[in-house]
């Protein structure tokens, strides 16, 4: 059986046996938070356990690096939808140590694309049409700075409701230990002073 067939067979059994019942919830986050984090496989189960989250507690948005790179991109849109339409009241950005985006070299990524069949013409066409692939594929030098940059983009977004706490953490992908980088409550209190 290939991977797709395995998924379909397992899913059929999962539904028939009603194994979904322990996960039933609605679309509104019970803990009224939205989390932006990395897609790293080590965090799939570890992060919710380390934060004491169960199914339905939080909206979790994942991408490479757990970063917000632009104020009007998909990640920020998802945060705003979670806040305005789904009842989230706080935002948490969680980066992690040993992130694959740390020091990611766009030249190497582009070389890997070419090795996997993407033609030079395609890359050249994109580059000449205003898409800066090298910038788009660049990682970051410091996970600490990455978390703080993402928090600042969110905090300073013109459409984020005033008074929304935005926190930043770095998680250890082995132990689940959290290092607080920025406390959204303290930031709001200092802003009010």
From TrEMBL:
It holds the Pfam family Pro_CA. Coiled coil: none annotated. Its cofactor is Zn(2+). Transmembrane segments: none annotated. Keywords: Metal-binding, Zinc. Signal peptide: none annotated. It catalyses: hydrogencarbonate + H(+) = CO2 + H2O. SUPFAM superfamilies: beta-carbonic anhydrase, cab (SSF53056). Its EC number is 4.2.1.1. Belongs to the beta-class carbonic anhydrase family. This is carbonic anhydrase. It comes from Paenibacillus oenotherae.
């Amino acid at each position: 059986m290939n991977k797709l067939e395995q998924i379909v067979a397992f899913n059929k059994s999962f539904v028939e046996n009603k194994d979904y019942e322990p996960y039933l919830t609605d679309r509104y986050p019970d803990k009224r938070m939205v989390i932006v984090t990395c897609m790293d496989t080590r965090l799939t189960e570890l992060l919710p356990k380390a934060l004491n989250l169960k199914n339905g507690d939080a909206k979790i948005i994942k991408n490479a690096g757990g970063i917000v790179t632009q104020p009007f991109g998909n990640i920020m849109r998802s945060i705003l939808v979670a806040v305005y339409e789904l009842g989230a009241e706080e935002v948490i950005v969680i980066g992690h140590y040993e992130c694959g985006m740390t020091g990611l070299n766009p030249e190497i990524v582009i070389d890997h694309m070419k090795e996997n069949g993407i033609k030079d013409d395609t890359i050249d066409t994109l580059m000449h049409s205003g898409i800066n692939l090298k910038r788009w594929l660049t990682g970051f030098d410091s996970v600490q700075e990455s978390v703080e940059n993402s928090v600042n983009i969110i905090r300073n977004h013109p459409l984020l409701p005033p008074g929304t706490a935005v926190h930043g953490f770095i998680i250890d992908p082995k132990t689940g230990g959290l290092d607080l980088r920025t406390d959204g409550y303290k930031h709001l209190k200092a802003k009010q002073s």
